[in-house]
Each structure stands twice: as structure tokens, then as C-alpha cells.
Design goal:
17 strands; 11 helices; globular; alpha+beta
């Protein structure tokens, strides 16, 4: 080969390399893809309502529909995650496992990539295998609950499929707002609240927001949270309570957007005062206004990198009362407590053992540089406050995720007792209370998973943990 041919070949290769490099620079890097879907889950017949033991009859109409909504995200490397929000009291393990098993089998989505969050509205339907002793259900109602629960599983699986199929290029933003209608119910008397000059006890006033915008600049989804019980209403009409009204308000303000509420660590926080539709609407508009403030301000755009980790940790349960203690309780209790005692005694008579621990779900997502920590059960606010001290105030903490099996009190609340610490386990049918070390177990598991996900601890120590 002549020198001229060699030089020509070399020059051509350099030219081709330069053109390819220029083309790579002009080609936009792959970013997020996102998809949204929604489905009405309002029961089509009167059913027993979840959340309040004092109810004595089935539902009577609706204030507005109940919804399940899904936000699917995929990062630049093809890693997927799906957030599902529901206007329900809480998803029990049996239904959650069925849904997640089917999503794994049909869509290759492992548990780490799915969050099933419940708003904890007390104006939704009873689900199968949830709070088994609290409701005095006849055979007809149990049949309706089983049918509704089976249909719900199918609806949510189809919902996730629709969200995944609808994905388009998007940008994802996050931010934190603030509002303060939550009141710590362990430290404030609801009946005298209006006479108080200060509200006592720990709380979390943050309003975490995720904004998803398509390439045309259209707002596709707003996922937002708050740490407060959805217990403004205790009547007999279906509704998402204040969170339902907040979603309706945002979808009115941002036409064409899907608004999704996720519950935070608000198990010891109530909307006070309460018990009127007007107050539920007021709190809904107040929460929506906090979200609007975040959306109107500059939000942080997230790089298209997604990491998801999940584990279940065994939380120890204390020994149940003895047969003698239960027999004595039987004579003094009524309602759901009597049903709990009766069931416990029957289990002893059959020679069946009680569970001594529970597989508790712990989950960490890192959306770009936004950390989301999702924990199961009715999570009290002390967990959010401690996790924010560890990882910074901008993290998102979700309770009521993947399995709502009981209240999750802090060590301090367990020692203090009261409803969240001592008696609420009867509501959920648990044989005993949690042992005092569960807070340490849960926090240590979160820290471990966060490290796996590449989440850094905060260097700032903002306040002491209560």
C-alpha cells in the first residue's frame, strides 16, 4: 500500500471520528420517561366503611369518587419504578402481596420498584383481612368485602400496566412546601383545642411534591404528601377526606393533570377541628394551596437516575396476655376488644401458637438526588423527624406503604402507652404490642438500605429527637 493511500485512510478515519463525536454532542442524552394512569375504585354497592369502630351500618352514597392512581417512571438506563396511591384506609399484607407478586410475574417489577401507598381515608371500604376484629360483619358483608378486594387487586394490576404503556419522555422535579393543620393528638385535647393558645407536641408540616412534565411542557402529574390522619369525616358517604378534596382542587387548577396523594408519618396527627364536610374541604384547599406554592416556585429538576431497594425486617412482638388474663378481660370488654379477646382465647383452646415477629417492609428510592423512604404501618411522626435529622430535611418520608398491619410507635410512645402505644394492636388483631426496640431496628434497616442506594447522611444536626 502506498504512503498516499495510508495517509488518505488515516485522514478519512479522523474525519469520520470527528463527525461521530459532533453527532454524539448534538444528540440529546436520554432522560426520564413517565406514564400516568387512574381508575375509580368506589364500591358499586353499599358496604361497611373502614376506620371507625363506632359505625353501625353500611355506606350511604358518596361525596366524591375514590381513586387508585399510578405514576410510572423509567430512568436513562431503563430502570423502572411505579408509585401507586389509593383512597383507602390501608393495604393489608395479603392483598399487597398478591398485587406485587402479579406485577413481578407479568411486568418484571420486583418489590423494590413498587410503592403501594394508602391515603388512610376513614371514608373508604373495608378490605379483606384488615382490622379483622373491629367490625361486626355478617356473612353477606364479608362476601361483598371479599369480592371488592379481589376486584381491587385486578384493578391495580391493570392500572400499573396502563401507566407503563403510556410512558413518554418527561422531566421530573421535586420540592417541599409547608402547611400546618395537623395537630398532635397525643399532646392536645381535641375538645379544648379552640381554647388553647399553643399547639403542643411534635409534628411534620412538610408538603413533599413531585412534578412530572412532558416534552411539550404540559403538567402530567403532581404527587404530593402530608403527615396527618385522613379523619376529618366520620359519616357514611364515600370520600378521600381532605386528601380527596386536595386532589380534586389541584386537578381543577391544573386541568389535565393527575393529582396523587401519598400519606406521610401522621399516625399520631389529626386534622383538628374536624367532623364537617366544610372542614374537609377547607383542609383540602389548604393542602392544595401549599402544593401550588411549590409548583409556582423554582423546583429542583432531577437527573434521570433511579435506584430502588427493599427489604423486610422482623419486628419482635411481645408475649400476649395469658389465658387467665384474657378470661378476666372477657368479662370487662365490649365491641372490638371483646371480639379480639374471644378470638385469642379460641386460638389458645385450639393449641395454636401466636406470632412472635412480623415481616415489616422498608423501602428506599433515590430519584435523581431526591430520597424517598417508604415504611409500612401507621407510622408516627417521630420516625420522619428522626430520619430527617439523619438524612436532611428535604427527604420524603411515606408511611402506610406496602403493608398496613398495625401502628408503628416510637420507643417513647411504647413506654408512655395510650392508644398508639398499648391498645391499638387489638384494633389490628395483633396478639401483643411491639417490643421497645422496634424503632432502633427500623431506623438501622433504613440506614442500611439508604447506604445501598447511595444516599448520603446529612452533615447538619437540626434538632434533638423527641
Amino acid at each position: 500500500m502506498s504512503k498516499m493511500v495510508v495517509l488518505f485512510s488515516f485522514s478519512f478515519a479522523l474525519c469520520f471520528s470527528d463527525l461521530k463525536a459532533a453527532g454524539d454532542q448534538q444528540r440529546p442524552a436520554k432522560g426520564w420517561s413517565g406514564g400516568v394512569a387512574r381508575v375509580i375504585i368506589t364500591p358499586d354497592q353499599p358496604m361497611w366503611m373502614a376506620g371507625f369502630a363506632a359505625r353501625d351500618r353500611v355506606s350511604e352514597g358518596k361525596l366524591h369518587d375514590l381513586w387508585a392512581k399510578a405514576l410510572a417512571l423509567e430512568d436513562a438506563d431503563g430502570q423502572k419504578a411505579v408509585l401507586v396511591t389509593t383512597d383507602l384506609l390501608g393495604m393489608p399484607k395479603e392483598l399487597s402481596d398478591r398485587i406485587r407478586d402479579r406485577l413481578q410475574a407479568s411486568m418484571n417489577l420486583p418489590r423494590a420498584q413498587i410503592i403501594l401507598n394508602s391515603s388512610h381515608t376513614h371514608s373508604g371500604p373495608v378490605l379483606r383481612n384488615s382490622l379483622v376484629d373491629i367490625y361486626g360483619l355478617d356473612e353477606d358483608q364479608q362476601k361483598k368485602i371479599a369480592q371488592y378486594s379481589d376486584r381491587l387487586v385486578n384493578q391495580i394490576v391493570s392500572l400499573v400496566s396502563s401507566a407503563l404503556k403510556s410512558m413518554v419522555p418527561v422531566k421530573v422535579y421535586t420540592g417541599n412546601g409547608v402547611t400546618r393543620f395537623q395537630v398532635n393528638r397525643r399532646n392536645n385535647n381535641a375538645t379544648t383545642l379552640l381554647q388553647q393558645t399553643e399547639v403542643k407536641g411534635p409534628g411534620d408540616s412538610a408538603v413533599p411534591v413531585i412534578k412530572v412534565v412532558n416534552d411539550a411542557g404540559d403538567l402530567m402529574a403532581l404527587a404530593f404528601g402530608y403527615a396527618c390522619h385522613n379523619t376529618t369525616l366520620s359519616g357514611y358517604e364515600w370520600s378521600g377526606d381532605y386528601a380527596g378534596f386536595a386532589q380534586l382542587e389541584l386537578e381543577k387548577v391544573y386541568e389535565g393533570t393527575t393529582a396523587m396523594f401519598f400519606a406521610g408519618a401522621g399516625a399520631d396527627q389529626n386534622p383538628l377541628p374536624r367532623n364537617t364536610v366544610a372542614l374537609a374541604q377547607q383542609y383540602g384547599k389548604t393542602l392544595a394551596a401549599a402544593v401550588e406554592s411549590v409548583v409556582s416556585d423554582e423546583m429542583r429538576m432531577l437527573p434521570a437516575k433511579l435506584t430502588t431497594v427493599y427489604a423486610e425486617v422482623a419486628l419482635p412482638i411481645s408475649a400476649p396476655p395469658s389465658k387467665e388474663e384474657l378470661s378476666n378481660m372477657l368479662e370487662k370488654t365490649t365491641g372490638y376488644q371483646k371480639r379480639w379477646v374471644t378470638r385469642m382465647l379460641k386460638q389458645i383452646e385450639r393449641g395454636e401458637s401466636f406470632i412472635t415477629s412480623y415481616p415489616y417492609p422498608v423501602q428506599v428510592w433515590k430519584l435523581g438526588d431526591q430520597t424517598m423512604i417508604s415504611l409500612g404501618g401507621e407510622l408516627v411522626v417521630g420516625y420522619a423527624n428522626q430520619l430527617k435529622q439523619i438524612f436532611g430535611q428535604d427527604i420524603f418520608v411515606l408511611g402506610y406503604s406496602n403493608d398496613v398491619m398495625a401502628y408503628i410507635p416510637t420507643t417513647a410512645i411504647l413506654r408512655e402507652g395510650g392508644y398508639e402505644g398499648a391498645t391499638s394492636q387489638m384494633v389490628y388483631g395483633m396478639p401483643g404490642t411491639w417490643t421497645p426496640n422496634i424503632q432502633t431496628i427500623i431506623i438501622e434497616k433504613v440506614v442500611q438500605l439508604a447506604e445501598q442506594a447511595g444516599v448520603r447522611k446529612s452533615e447538619k444536626k437540626i434538632f434533638e429527637i423527641n
